[in-house]
Amino acid sequence: MNRQLNFTVDHEDDRLDRFLAVRCADLSRSRVQRLIADGCVTVDKMVARSASRLRSGQVVTILLPDVVEAYPMPQNIPVEIKYRDDDFMVVNKPAGMTVHPAPGHPDGTLVNAVLAMIPRLADVGPASRPGIVHRLDKDTSGLLVIAINEDALECLSMQLRKRAFTKGYLALVQGCPSTTEAIIEAPIGRDPNNRKRMAIVASGREASTYYRVLTRYERCSLVEIKSSTGRTHQIRVHFASLGHPLVGDTSYGIPHPSLNRQFLHANVLGFNHPSTGERLEFTSELPGELAKFMESL
After folding, report:
1. Considering the entire predicted model, what is its pTM?
2. Which of 9, 142, 204, 285 could cross-link with 187 by S-S, CB 3.0 to 4.6 Å?
3. Radius of gyration over every alpha carbon of the chain, rounded to an integer in angstroms
């Protein structure tokens, strides 16, 4: 079961992360920062940031998620490899597969699959998500890069933080956006009313989504998307906020009888090679179930 810790602030003008570092001495500083970033920490029931200033009498609440097995086991799960060398591999993640173990998904993940291919990957990065540079939602398919050594992980992670990645997507959204091309800019954070969802909240993190409508159908539209910020559920939340949720998105829209996933596919991924500096770009076609759905339109 998840554990909940509550603390009452007894002095003014302390930063949230410093306050928790003192009150939660059994948690590492990086764990505290991760909990805050994941929206597991609230101040007076509102999601807060690490640098948030506290006032006397406020109540700080931490939700500690279930502990996940620290060392994922290799599992022989087939995954399409688009490219591989000594530094990294680019894979085509199928819908329905979680990237790394998490509460409710202890195995059967992409990490379990790649550990079976490359056992030494277990020593690259955090034990629970070795080699992982970025993620895709469970029911989003498409391109992911996985670092195979520590230097590559550091280099690729730095590029991601500096927004030097090119990340492109194809999505089918309900209805027809009034603007053919636009940028959606709205901060995203944990939904204060439902911790399993994200939402546009004033205290959220900056998020920017560019889109261009490729084809308009009677009840939906195919859009091309580019994003450099990559917040959790960013594309799904942004389009839902416009009144055009992704087709098949059961969290932010409505189910579709002919689709058991949201129509979102990461079809373009670009970055600089961690050893040579060469600019690389990979592409991926729509998977079979999405291509078949498009034919039905």
Report:
1. 0.78
2. 204
3. 20
